[in-house]
Amino acid sequence: MQKVQLKNSLILFLTATIWGVAFVAQSVGMDYVEPFTFNMVRNFLGGLVLIPCIWILDKINPKEKKILNEQEKSQARKLLLKGGVCCGVLLAFATSFQQTGIKYTTVGRAGFITAFYIIIVPILGLIFFKKKCRSTIWLAVVLALIGLYLLCITDGFAIGKGDFYVFICSLLFSLHILVIDHFSPLVDGVKCPVFSFL
Fold first, then answer.
1. Which of 38, 53, 60, 89 would you label with 191, given CA atoms 20 to 30 Å apart?
2. What is the pLDDT of residue 198?
3. From CA 102, how far away is CA 165, in angstroms rounded?
4. Residue 85: enclosing H or E segment and its boundaries?
């Protein structure tokens, strides 16, 4: 059990590292291309990487395949397409607002404001889905925001045009996370993003 917890913690650490470094890459990218071009290339590459993953993951970890009739297959495809479109539309708008905002604000501010989704997601989950969080989760959220502020905001806090765009991005990412939470038990977690990319 401890090995699994250690592995999961390391994966979360790696994810956080990649997430943080990505802001620097996004900011540097704005010196060479416009936001929509940057996002198009990024999402195209993401889709290309995920397509082989569908085949590889099916080979490594084959799931018990149920025998579905044509009507059930059609319903499963529609659900996968619906999940992919919903995730894709929200992802497209969220990354576009974020990338545009990064043009007009600092990397630290963009990271801090984007991370507001850690408090927006539980609030929206409570409002729309009646999902309650324990008090320890709320405490962790507040401590995380304080830590992010201390790490990212070094030159005082004032709201500019870029900050506003990135805050809209944070709201959209919050909705994106809730949509993923809804569809992930219902559809393949790799195939759904491929539909959102392509």
1. 38
2. 46
3. 8
4. helix 70-104
Residue 121 contacts residue 178 (beta carbons within 8 Å): yes
Contact status, residue 178 vs residue 107, Cβ threshold 8 Å: no
pLDDT tens, residue by residue, 122-138: 888 888 877 777 888 78
C-beta separation of 19 from 112 below 8 A: no
- With both helix axes pointing from N to C terminus, report the angle between 107-114 and 135-152 in degrees, rounded to the nearest 10: 170
Residue 100's H or E segment, with its range, is helix 70-104
91 vs 85: CA distance, rounded Å = 10
Q: Tokens 């990412």 map to which residue? A: 173
Query: Contact, 39 vs 95, CB < 8 A?
Result: yes
172: number of Cβ within 10 Å: 22
H-type helices in the chain, by residue range? 2-29, 35-60, 70-104, 107-114, 117-129, 135-152, 161-183, 191-197
By three-state DSSP, how is residue 25 classified? helix
39 within 8 A of 99, measured Cβ to Cβ: yes
26 closest CA partner among 149, 89, 110 = 110
Q: How confident is the model at residue 89 (pLDDT cuts 50, 70, 90)?
A: very high
